[in-house]
Amino acid sequence: MMEELAKIPWAVIAPLIVVQLVLMIVALIDLRRIHTTNGPKILWVLIILFANLLGPILYFIIGRKQS
């Protein structure tokens, strides 16, 4: 198991993990603050949490109602 972990290119993967976590946190904070969305909020929470990097991006593009 440790040998497999040593083969992973962490210099490439670590920044993607950080970007994913930052986008997820920002999207969840924005979802909490905004009053109306395109669709139910609980659905957007699930999409943000379980759709990895694509979920928060979809929320910012599709989920927010433009005022």
UniProtKB/TrEMBL annotation:
InterPro entries: CLS_N (IPR027379)
Stretches assigned to the Cardiolipin synthase N-terminal domain: 22-64
TM ranges: 12-31, 43-62
Keyword vocabulary terms for this entry: Cell membrane, Membrane, Transmembrane, Transmembrane helix
Protein name per UniProt: Phosphatidylserine synthase
Organism: Lysinibacillus piscis
Compartment list: Cell membrane
Broad class of the protein's primary localization: membrane
Keyword Phosphoprotein on entry: no
Coiled-coil blocks: none
Domain of life: Bacteria
Bilayer disposition of the protein: Multi-pass membrane protein
